[in-house]
Automatic annotation (TrEMBL):
Residues 231-315 form the Multidrug resistance protein MdtA-like beta-barrel domain. Keywords: Cell inner membrane, Cell membrane, Membrane, Transport. Its main location: membrane. This is Membrane protein. InterPro entries: MdtA-like_b-barrel (IPR058626), MdtA-like_BSH (IPR058625), MdtA-like_C (IPR058627), MdtA-like_HH (IPR058624), RND_pump_MFP (IPR006143). Residues 31-40, 405-421 have a biased composition (Basic and acidic residues). Residues 86-222 form the Multidrug resistance protein MdtA-like barrel-sandwich hybrid domain. It is found in: Cell membrane. The gene is mtrC. Residues 127-196 form the Multidrug resistance protein MdtA-like alpha-helical hairpin domain. Residues 31-63, 386-421 are annotated as: Disordered. Pfam families: Beta-barrel_RND, BSH_RND, HH_MFP_RND, RND-MFP_C. It comes from Dyella flagellata. Belongs to the membrane fusion protein (MFP) (TC 8.A.1) family.
Length: 421
């Protein structure tokens, strides 16, 4: 036998022996696994299948709070716009070269402050001319009066004709009228001269200026806009359904309805409380709303013109309203309800009618509950009508249940906590 065939025969023998050994080694493992599957199937321990004793009659820990009677203010809410009390665009009343600007943009200015100066030389000259003309005519009037007096004494002696006296008298009257006209001309020239000093007509905040010193301005040139923000207005709309309630309260409350302005997040008031000032005299047919205007002192300038704010208008106060935490109210297919604690420490589903919000965390209930009733505020997600509960005091957090995954109840850490309701 050649060397080639000896090597080939050796390789074949090795492969056959290896295959037999592999088969013998793995057969017991497969049989063991098969036997385990059959045993599991016979015992009926399929994953996730509930056991025969899965019912749990342990009371559910929940937090309960009693209803409380208190005086509840009723508010109407809206989105309002802050508007300035006065908004004035300053234009020169005479033309000329702008010499100086005496304010800084964004600066508070007072009524009567000189905020700009126009070249006054031309107007000063006109004023001086008017004053000189008045003095000239006053001198002529004095001469005419003296001549009239002197000639009246000579009429009796026959030295002056009576006809000339009438001429002297008419001349005096004419000069008197001329002096009066001169006085008016002086006042007019003085007004024009004063207009070269541009004065703030209001207390306000200066905006961005529109011209620079050195420019020639006219009466149509806007220099700056002044905005009065102390006090300040807030204008807001309400639906027409609220008109009757607002008007009744506005007329019967001596025009002192309280208005609160809140920031866009409803987190805190922006200013001291304002008062309702005006209810508009018409309803907008396109939106079905009417406008109202409130006035605020705005001492800290927290309200700024053009700002959007949330507005709360208090129209009345309910005496002895039933108040519960807002989180106690649940939404169901038939409306709002709460879980009410029964004397036997079970809960019942109690329909309620929510009349309005009380602050940020409570609501007023107009129907369905009585004073002192206990309602569930935490843990509702584990309840159903008739559930046995363990009532906890307000502030105590009910323990969260541990849910088993159904695979290995004996292993620690296989359960997981459910989210709190």
């Amino acid at each position: 036998m050649s060397r080639f065939w000896k090597i080939a025969l050796t390789v074949i023998v090795v492969l056959v022996v290896g295959g037999v050994a592999f088969r013998l080694l793995h057969k017991p493992a497969e049989e063991g696994a098969g036997g385990h599957h059959k045993e599991s199937a016979q015992n009926g321990d399929a994953p996730g299948k509930p056991g025969a004793n899965g019912q749990d009659n342990t009371p559910v820990p929940v937090t309960v709070e009693p209803t409380v009677k208190q005086n509840v203010p009723v508010y109407l809410t809206a989105l309002g716009t802050v508007t300035a009390l006065n908004n004035v665009t300053i234009n020169p009343q005479v033309g000329g070269q702008l010499w100086a600007i005496n304010f800084k943009e964004g600066q508070d200015v007072k009524k009567g402050d000189v905020i700009a100066q126009i070249d006054p030389r031309t107007y000063q000259a006109a004023y001086d001319q008017a004053v000189a003309k008045q003095k000239q005519d006053e001198a002529s009037l004095a001469t005419a009066i003296s001549t009239l007096d002197r000639n009246q004494k000579l009429v009796a002696s026959g030295y002056v004709a009576a006809l000339n006296i009438d001429t002297y008298r008419n001349n005096v009257n004419q000069l008197k009228a001329t002096v009066v006209a001169d006085e008016a001309s002086v006042r007019s020239a003085k007004v024009q001269l004063d207009f070269t000093k541009i004065v703030s007509p209001i207390d306000g905040v200066a905006g961005i200026r529109q011209v620079d010193p050195g420019n020639v301005v006219t009466t149509s040139t806007a220099i700056v806009t002044l905005t009065q923000i102390h006090p300040i207005y807030i204008v807001f709309p309400l639906p027409e359904q609220s008109l009757e309630a607002v008007r009744d309260s506005f007329q019967n409350g001596s025009n002192k309805l309280e208005v609160i302005a809140l920031d866009r997040a409803d987190a805190h008031p922006l200013d001291t409380t304002g008062t309702l000032q005006v209810v508009d005299n018409l309803i907008d047919t396109s939106t079905g709303t009417f406008k109202l205007r409130a006035i605020f002192n705005n001492p800290s300038s927290a309200l700024w013109p053009g700002q959007f704010v949330n507005v709360r208008l208090r129209v009345r106060t309910v005496a002895g309203g039933l108040v519960i935490p807002a989180q106690a109210v649940q939404r169901g297919p038939d409306g709002d309800f709460v879980y009410k604690l029964q004397p036997d420490q079970t809960v019942a589903m109690q329909p309620v009618a929510v009349a309005g919000e009380v602050g940020e965390s409570h609501v007023m209930v107009s129907n369905g509950l009585n004073d002192g009733d206990q309602v569930v505020t935490e843990g509702q997600f584990r309840l159903k009508p008739g559930s046995k509960v363990k009532a906890l005091k307000p502030g105590e957090v009910p323990p969260l249940p541990v849910a088993s995954d159904g695979k290995d109840k004996g292993k620690k850490g296989d359960g997981h906590r459910a989210s709190a309701g």
